[in-house]
Design goal:
Elements: E1 4-8, E2 11-14, H1 15-37, H2 46-68, H3 87-104, H4 109-134, H5 155-162, H6 179-198, H7 206-223, H8 238-259, H9 271-277
Helix pairs in contact: 1-2, 1-4, 2-3, 4-6, 4-7, 6-7, 7-8
Length: 283
């Protein structure tokens, strides 16, 4: 655990916001580059990443307020420096902001989504490193060989004190599942999967659907080992319920496409290959 990543001339760079900013820069620049290499190219710019970043921060804050606080405090959603962010809220807010940007600049919606989600997974992995260093998003108590402990006054330590798992004489928290590491490894695997899939023949929007399905599985499983999530919805966490939705949506969309309701040729051609055959991006 290292909440302060580095200190330079008296200025402290905290781990989570620093890694979050790095994820934004890496994800945005690589997404723009991949868009430019697409055939035909998707001509965007880093401004789109900024739209998504701001939308994601506000959405994550709104979701946190609704889940952990009171709706009457939604006006504080723009007080981003106060902390308290939930990823699924960020995904919704970022997606809406990016959709607005794509619509405003008349970019191909489904092809743009395919480009963006690949590096979204990479950016998430980087951000989860910040979670690990910050000590947030910790796991439940366990005795597995790879369990980790967090120091006194960490989030996990304070939680275990309040839950009566340890007392104030403990020098550190009891060992817990390294859920942040589970997410990092899983997200890197998803990133690799999406990169391989993007290079293969696919219909527009397929990579975005694959991301939804793969991330839904990962998050649903890891939530079983989270120690900071209340299981308040039929024995599941709120994130698990949303994850189930992310699993269902791709299946429903593919079923509809197979039935011909979204076009009989929707599944018959691939992303890069089809794009080379047509000058117009299909939405």
């Amino acid at each position: 655990m290292r909440p302060t990543l580095v200190e330079v001339f008296g200025l402290k760079f905290h781990a989570y916001p620093t890694l979050l900013a790095l994820a934004f820069l890496v994800g945005t620049l690589l997404t723009v580059r991949q868009g430019e290499r697409a055939k035909p190219p998707i001509i965007g710019n880093p401004q789109g990443g900024l739209w998504a970043f701001i939308g994601a921060l506000v959405g994550a804050k709104v979701f946190w307020i609704l889940q952990y606080s009171e709706a009457k405090l939604l006006w504080r959603a723009f007080f981003l420096w106060e902390g308290g962010l939930v990823y699924y809220g960020g995904l919704i807010g970022g997606a809406l902001a990016l959709f607005a940007y794509i619509t405003l600049y008349k970019l191909p919606i489904r092809r743009s989504a395919d480009v963006c989600v690949t590096y979204l997974a990479l950016g998430q992995a980087i951000t989860r490193v910040g979670c690990f260093l910050n000590g947030c998003c910790w796991g439940v108590e366990t005795d597995v060989p790879w369990a980790i402990t967090f120091p006194k006054n960490s989030y996990a330590y304070r939680h275990q004190i309040e839950a009566g798992i340890i007392d104030h004489t403990a020098v550190h928290a009891d060992p817990v599942h390294p859920t942040q590491v589970y997410m990092i490894v899983g997200l890197i695997a998803i990133f690799a999967l999406l990169k391989v899939a993007y290079g293969r023949r696919h219909f527009d929007g397929a990579i975005a659907l694959l991301y939804c399905f793969a991330y839904g599985i990962l998050r649903f499983i890891v939530e079983f080992y989270r120690g900071d999530s209340a299981r308040s919805v039929f024995g599941m966490t709120v994130s698990q319920v949303i994850s189930l939705g992310m699993l269902i949506v791709p299946v429903v969309v593919l079923g509809v496409m197979r039935s011909g309701m979204l076009g009989s040729k929707a599944l018959d051609h691939g992303g890069p290959s089809a794009a080379e055959e047509s000058e117009a991006a299909r939405d």
